[in-house]
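Morning!

This is the sequence you dropped in the shared folder:
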Amino acid sequence: MGIKKEAPKSGFRLAVAGKGGAGKTTLVALLAELFARNGYHVLATDEDPQMNLALSLGVSFEEAEQIVPLSQNNAYIEEKTGASPGSGWGGFLRLNPDVSDVVERFGLRIKPNLYLVAMGSVEQADTGCLCPQNNLLKAVLRHIVLKSDDIILTDTQAGPEHFGRGLLKDFSLLLVVAEPTAAALQVAKKSVVLAKQLRIAHQKLVVNKVQERKDQLKAEALMEHFGSEWPSTYFLPYAPDLLAIEPQVASVLTKNSRFARAVQGLFKDVEALIPLGE
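The structure's back. Tokens below.
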């Protein structure tokens, strides 16, 4: 997996978005595990300010506490973009920085074919979308040249900011995760609309934590109320055993549970979207 300045032509870029608490990070960790088990080379990137993806992937608490996200690595940002965080729009800012060394320098190896890079988020309100941090994060996500068996899997921050900053442009698929509630599905609907505006090729809705049939019926009624143009929808059953094993959630896949089967079914449908290798 190498990073160059050319536009990406192969491989697969997948982002998971949704309202906070809907289960984004858990789903990212489980899909990363399934991709890795099936022989893909996976780069998991964590854009959520909470940075819980490392723990969900099995990193120890002690090691996770030592992770410094790229958005807070001021020396690297200035080295690559030519501008220091907080310097605003003045001076010369490289819009397409060379970040070919980012995985080697900052990637945390989870498995031989699974790496994690903590991206962090842009939190300065006065620098706009052309701030040095955003240019660096965008370069990492958009300018990695992937082989056919390479996957970028991104855990986005809650809310729509990543759409406005263009971080998900050129992505292949957006999975929008929502609980079966009005608030969560409203956020999901907005995410689907923004994904289409960014011309993300595919979108799927994942309604998580469905405990009973009435929860699915409620979600379907809310979706009809909010509009008919919804993507393919998956309903994941509530999995109480996740609470016992979190934050390291991968072992749930070894259980013959409705939840594990549903996640594996979602994975197979996602995998079917990946272009065949050259």
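Headline: The first strand starts at residue 2 and ends at 3.

More detail when I'm at my desk.
O.
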